[in-house]
Amino acid sequence: MRLASLMLAMGLGLAACAPTTPTGTTSSVGSGVYGARTDSGPGGEPIEIHAVRNAYLTERNTRQRVAYNGPEAPGTIVVDPYARFLYHVIAPGEAMRYGVAVGQAGKNFAGNATINRKQAWPSWTPTSNMVRTMPDLYGPLRNGLPGGIDNPLGSRAFYLYKGGRDTLYRIHGTMDPSSIGKATSAGCIRMFNQDVMDLFGEIPTGTHVKVRSRGESEQLEGPLVQMPNGYLEPATPTVTTASATADTAKP
């Protein structure tokens, strides 16, 4: 089971945007935003979350307070799967920006949604289609993978609904911090565990979410190019309308 879950977390990068079952938890934050933490797992057991390596803490990946000129109201979560950013609008003209990894499913939805459920150490179950098309990989997990250190959803998850229906679009943690800032083969929107844990404590269920289309992303973030290391960089040196500095959010 551990091998299968590691394959999901590291290789597939979370091919699972599917409903999970509830768990409860509390957290204890270590020194530094991206330092090691000890969290309480699904059964109350301590779970050690490793510090994020400095190599992964690029300027576009690390959380930072930025100027925000988008139209969304304070309290809104804005997901930009094309610029690989998530914004939490915290005041008029200001947002906290986070780097994210984006799977193919992260580009399958655009528009407005609501976080109707959020979960600590969520479990995960592959869809019947995933089991049918890749039985060797997903067959052993057909009954679900419990929440915990081996689960590719990581430490926290947010579930987006539209019109009362589950969109199957997820914002969640990851057990593969090296993927943040990059495109992945599958999955939705993932964050460093430390980031998603802190955001989890800040936003309630009922929070409005805006997922940008490609056109909206290009208008607000400008053209971007993918570098050989998998990270995005601005194609021009112009400051974007959604960021505070030319270094952190150029188009």
What does this structure look like?
It is a single chain. This protein has 251 residues and is α+β, with helices and mostly antiparallel strands. It is built from 6 helices and 15 strands. The strands form 3 sheets. Strands 4-7-6-5-13-9-10-11-12-8 form a 10-stranded mixed beta sheet, covered by helices on one side. A 3-stranded antiparallel beta sheet has the order 1-2-3, covered by helices on one side. It starts with a helix and ends with a helix. Mean pLDDT is 85; it is low at 1-14, 18-31 and 243-251. Residues 21-31, 235-251 have a biased composition (Low complexity). Keywords: Acyltransferase, Cell shape, Cell wall biogenesis/degradation, Glycosyltransferase, Hydrolase, Peptidoglycan synthesis, Signal, Transferase. Pathway: Cell wall biogenesis; peptidoglycan biosynthesis. Residues 75-212 form the L,D-TPase catalytic domain. It holds the Pfam family YkuD.
What layout of secondary structure does this protein have?
Layout: H1 2-12, E1 27-28, E2 37-40, E3 46-49, E4 64-67, E5 77-80, E6 85-91, E7 94-99, E8 101-102, E9 111-120, H2 128-133, H3 135-138, E10 156-162, E11 165-172, E12 189-190, H4 193-202, E13 208-211, H5 214-221, E14 224-226, E15 232-234, H6 246-249
Short note summarizing the structure:
With 251 residues, this protein is an alpha+beta fold.
Structural class comes to: alpha+beta
Strand share of the residues? 25-35%
Helical stretch tally: 6
**Average predicted local confidence, pLDDT:** 85
Q: What is the CA-based Rg, rounded?
A: 17 Å
User: For the report, how would you describe the main beta sheet?
Assistant: 10 strands, mixed
As residue ranges, the low-confidence spans are 1-14, 18-31, 243-251
Which series of helices and strands comes N to C? HEEEEEEEEEHHEEEHEHEEH
Spatial shape: globular
Pfam family, one: YkuD
Protein name: L,D-transpeptidase
GO molecular function: acyltransferase activity
Pathway: Cell wall biogenesis; peptidoglycan biosynthesis
